[in-house]
Hints:
It is a single chain. It contains no helices and 11 strands. The protein is mostly beta strands. The chain starts with a strand and ends with a strand.
Amino acid sequence: QLQLVESGGGLVQSGESLRLSCAASGYSFDSYAIAWFRQAPGKKREWVSCINDRGGSPNYAEAVKGRFTISRDNAKNTVYLQMNSLKPEDTAVYYCATGAGYNYWGQGTQVTVSS
């Protein structure tokens, strides 16, 4: 059974950094692209970043471009989101998703950025 488990969230101050991890199991990890999404309180879930099955072609939402970096280690079945220069508006639950049409999701990890 395909499973995604996010970790690395926490409470940081504005300007600090966090690295999120998404560990995958139960399928051939390099079969699909993987994306990060986030959902802030009272807001719709939004796409943050994605990377293809081989670790290339990273893409980013305008709000995080230049501050966040997505990467994946297919040998470790893990995708990362390095988040630098965090802002209070980055506060959200962060999810990783994969599969055809991103139909598999993790449980999320909370990121809180204080001003």
